[in-house]
Amino acid sequence: MNVHILADSACDLPLDYFEEHSISFLPLSVDIKGEQLQDQIEIKPKQLYNAMREGAVVKTSQPSPLLIKESFTDLANKGIPSLYVAFSSELSGTYQTAMMIRNEVLEEFPSFELAIIDTKCASLGHGLAVRYAADLAESGKSLSEIETAVKNYCLKMEHIFTVDNLEYLARGGRISKASAFVGGLLNIKPLLHVEDGKLIPLEKIRGRKKVFRRIIEIMSERGVNLQNQTIAISHGDDEEAAYEMKALIEKEFSPNEVYINYVGAVVGAHAGPGTLAIFFLNDEL
Question: Taking 50 as the threshold, does the pLDDT of residue 89 lie above it?
Fold first, then answer.
């Protein structure tokens, strides 16, 4: 029996991917003007970014504990070994909640094989980890083999991204207010990365073209064997920038694939419109 994969909506993979690979989908929620909407099901990224541009204050919340418990219990009843690939514990309480519910379910089903991975990743960094887990599961690997491989994969995942305005990240507590350097009037673009699951400001660069060039430089410095990787780009409603970045990456590194998708509503609620993020591995698997 193949291992069943579960993932939450913060991985920013489309619903079609979940359905095609029979992955359980656990949506986080976005609160806009008091209305709580399930990510990807009741709100799409473009709707979120339009609301933010109009000044809406947006909050996010974890997947419903009831939904998590129902998902775990259903799999336990069927005796299917399962792996939940979860959003970074440094950015959400989703992982901790899932671990508590796992313990509850195991009291009732002590023989149920369920592992939960704290990816320490976000957006398509998390999404690439989900894709990797799904590939391993479909190839017939055991739960322990997949868990070990995906944990190793996540440790090697680089997140390099830029946002139009760090105020969104500061407002949501994702970075300190002291770190929220805002340079819109000076055309200063902040560059950030993820370190042990946390968002860390890296550099301040003037102008979009210089930011793109610097991202390519960082990829050259940190990336290993990029020509044989799938590199991912997620964007906050700025496809033009994503495809411009894709062209630069393909010219410089000729990777196996450059995968592009939106920064989803939950991550986008904190990063804001105009976000551009690049994900790649910094070591061999």
Answer: yes
